[in-house]
Amino acid sequence: MLALRSASAPFPLQGDFHSGNTRVAFSGTVSDPLNVGGIDLRLKFAGDSLRDLYDLTGVLLPETPSFSTDGRLRADFTQKNRMRFNYQNFNGRIGDSDIHGSLTYTTGKPRPKLSGDMESKQLRLADLGPLIGVDSGKGTKKSASRQAGDRPQPAGKVLPADRFETDKWQVMDADVRFKGRRIEHGGTLPISDLSTHVILEDGDLRLQPVRFGLANGSIAGSVHLQGDKKPLQGEANLQARRLKLKALMPNVEMMQKTLGEMNGDVQLRGSGNSVAALLGNSNGNLKLLMNDGLISRNLMEILGLNVGNYLIGQIFGDEEVRVNCAAANIDVTNGVARPQIFAFDTENALINVTGTASFASEQLDLTIDPESKGFRVITLRSPLYVRAPLNRRRRG
């Protein structure tokens, strides 16, 4: 009893709580126990989803795949209207991703705030999806409901229609820096050395900056999603530098012969609560420059591009053709992309592409006009016209 009355002597504390499959275990001390001045605990969490921690902690977190984490929790309760929780040097997992770092959660007005630093050696990108309100894929209740028949993606559409749950973005603010060494995203191209600063304030989300390695090159820029607007307002400014063509297509043998690179810039802004909606009324510009590539019908077939397979066959036949360079400068207005310049300079022909591609209707309406070089005869004497939905770009 004397220890309980002492404001200076720490009082030992231990507990192990379960709620369904969620477990919270801790051991440590509490200072000024009669007034609960603060705590210093070794703390372990585990469960099916971070969202399930709400019943035990009162902190609203997103739905995620199964998780576990172990770290040191220090908290100061001396200011009842602004309590501070420091979860230090934690190690854990969310789904198939490892996570490490230190985070601080501060209560108070106008909103609680989460700040700190996190890193991952092997990150599965789908495990982070719920943090911005989109489906995580494997292992969540939302994912299971989709497998049971809840499929929001419209039939025949390619652009993702998953809605951002922006109402959750205004529950708390965030200022978190994140690093990931290797990123798995469901494709054949590994993403490496991800680095971003996530700033969330009253529903306004910024990734500024965001950087990562791709195809032995880099992608860098910023993303701004104003979730406090109805509908959401989004803007992306990204730069791709020195992406190696052979690394972009690691499973295509013919591309391993080339030393070509690709560079590009993307500046887009739009409104809507999904990627499809944002692109469907977007405005901005796309630039692309490529050098020293290869192209053939076989390549188009490997990539599953039916339209490309047909076009290359019509222009070049079955030959493998070297591309000296390719350049594109494409304006996007109200969701419709229209090239100012879209040209390929090959060893046999100069190919110009004009027309439009609509993100809203996902329709292509393009004219491909090849101009033969020198005495080399190209069988095609008139332009080719491509009028097809985006989802027909793939075989079968």
TrEMBL record:
Species whose genome carries this gene: Klebsiella pneumoniae
Source taxonomy: Bacteria, Pseudomonadati, Pseudomonadota, Gammaproteobacteria, Enterobacterales
One GO biological process term: regulation of protein targeting to membrane
Listed GO CC annotations: plasma membrane
Boundaries of every AsmA domain copy: 1-341
Region (Disordered): 133-158
Pfam families hit by this protein: AsmA
Name by which UniProt lists this protein: AsmA family protein
